[in-house]
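Apologies for my clumsy wording, but can you show me some protein sequence, whichever is easiest, together with the matching structure tokens, please?
=====
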Amino acid sequence: MSGNASKWTQKTFESFEIGLAALLSPSLQSMCASPKIKFKNEEQHERYLGWLSSETFAADLGKPIYQPGTGKWFIESLGFQTWIQNRGQTLFSHGIPGAGKTSMASIIIDDLNHRHGSDPHVGIAYIFCSFRYCDDPRQSPDNVLASLIRQLVWRLPRLPSTIQVFYEKHRGNGSRPSFNDLCKVFKEVVQMALKQAFIVIDALDECKAATVSRIISQIFETQASGNLNLLATSRSVPAIQAKFLERPFQEIRATKGDVMTYLEARLKDCEYCALIRRPALQKEAVLVIANSVNGMFLLAQLYLDSLILAPRAKDIKTELDRLTNRSNRVDKGNAAVDDAYQNIVECINNQDPRRQRLAKDTLSWVICAKRPLTPLELRTALAIELGESDLNDEDLYDLEDIISSCSGLITVGSDGTKEVVQLAHYTMHEYFTRHQAIFFPESDKTITASCLTYLSYDIFQQGMCSNDIEFEDRLSQYPLYSYAAQNRGHHARVHSTVDDLLLGLLRDPDFLNSSFQGLFSLKGYYESESYCLRIPFGFTPFHLAAWFGLEKVLQFLVSQWGLPCARDSTNRGPLAWATLNGHISVVKMLLDHGVEPLQHDDDCQTPFSLAALNGHTEVVKLFLDYNIDPNPRDIHNKIPLIEASYGGHHETVELLLSRGAHPDLRTITGGPLSYGHAIMARLR
């Protein structure tokens, strides 16, 4: 273990499931390898790989808190030793929630690093899946595979020629390689560039099923070369377990010895509490907890937190008796975790009313936000008051007060590029999601109102910024601007009402333009200057309602102003934007109003082809149900089947074929058969 791995933090709920890979050892960041193009300098090397993927999946999961020696039983097990010592092996490691699967994945990566870190011809790559990013593009099949490739080729001074070819081909027009293109590169890297490759994927159950299916299938296919080893962790989910039938598996559980090591080390770091002053009681606590957790590190942490907060020896003994009685009951596992969380909620409810309100508002934002918020974004969100036209630093809560009010339920981690505030464990998200109707019955309505209030501040009435410096200054001064602009419609769609504040923003052109700029201005890896002006101009309220899938708002707008015919500067109408984002109810509404589904934009795309390209199978089906020709050609002679095949969208391709799409149609760049899709390949 590295020195960093032995340093413990005392923050409550820094769970054993927190990813530790980034800090386990300095060399862990540089784990990867590959061949063929010699770079003139490191900058060129970094440019190619930075373009390929910016995701390392290492630093986004927090601090290491496990102790040296924990997990040794797994590393020494027959299953792991067979996996590590033989080529072409798969090991599926499943476990109950809170068992320490992510920590074990980090221990495994550290072990691989110690074994093979000095060999540049051994590639090591890892993916830490997270429920927080389940719907985020970073966990799409394309981005996950691109990240694996980047990590595998990182250490060698030569890259496969295909990476340079793709870079030169795509950088000019801002496009990306297709999933099928990336599969070819992945195979080339594993089979030709490396003598051995190891891939560790943690928490498959926290990733979209479509991503899991495509990535695992590609890895299994590539394993035929014999030099690729895969180790994956997951909860015991039948759909995931089915993918690993006939392959070796090993359960991950918190052993009694590991739990006791964790508890004893954490108690040494406690500065002051009643338990610390009573050595005999400490020993009893360690033993009782170790016997009560039933293989869950998470419970060990929750139980110890409860004891540390106990002010008297009598309270400690009462809590230990409660734990002993609970361990003798049948309701272990999830029921025990729920019970522990309910106790924390009761602690929150026993606080001063103002701190209680702060805690509930904080949890509402952290749990219901569409992406993790930075500390400053959260502080800003909590300071918004309806009806106000601005806020200043005096309105903000201190981060320490925010965290302490939540009794350890939230912590500050990292998403790989910045600090974010997050729940300390996946099971907390599940618990509060199950009980959202009780704890946060109108969270999306409240967040929508806060976002709209923020976007109606006086500063945004000035309209769009004219240059990047001015725009970035606005982002800095108004840290929730980006989140509010990009997500207020998603929250509004959930509670599904036509809000006067929303309509007011839609009617005011300056507010509207400010929100468009915040919605579309995303600075890319190699974006040139004036990126803040590279947005669709001529966006109308109809476009915005369609973009977010706000059906009731769009119905209201149509009732007031008639059929939306306007097009923006990219020559797209509302139907194109609704289709692009897969909002099927809005697409149906617009089709019912007679909006043309085959109008071309400036990229020669139609709403129909956009649906196929992005794999929105239900939207494609809707178009076909409206008797739209399955083979409409654009000016390049392309048909939707080509778009779906290029994107690697299995279900969409199957649907189009079943409804009469022609797989043999040719274009100037080839036909559907040219893109290597598995279904297309069977038609050759």
In short: The chain has four domains: 18-244, 256-332, 353-439, 443-535. The longest strand covers residues 122-128. Confidence is low (pLDDT under 50) at residues 1-40, 60-64.
